[in-house]
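ok so for the tutorial part 2 we go from a plain amino acid sequence to predicted structure tokens. step 1 is just haveing the sequence, like this:
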Amino acid sequence: MNKLKALTAIIVFSGALLPLATAKPEYAKKEGKACTFCHVKAGSKELTDAGKYYKEHNHSLEGYKAPSKG
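step 2 — the prediction. this is what the tokens look like for a chain of 70 residues:
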């Protein structure tokens, strides 16, 4: 019975966190990049320039040129 209560609590807690997920892991896997390549920090909805490009170009980094550091 205690295991059932614990499992229920874990499911409820996980469900509460689900809306906080902003990036889709399949995008990171598809592009071979870390989530922070497109997001300012992990778990953030704020996008980097690469993230904005990705969003505006049908979820593709094709043609993306990173700004030169200089």
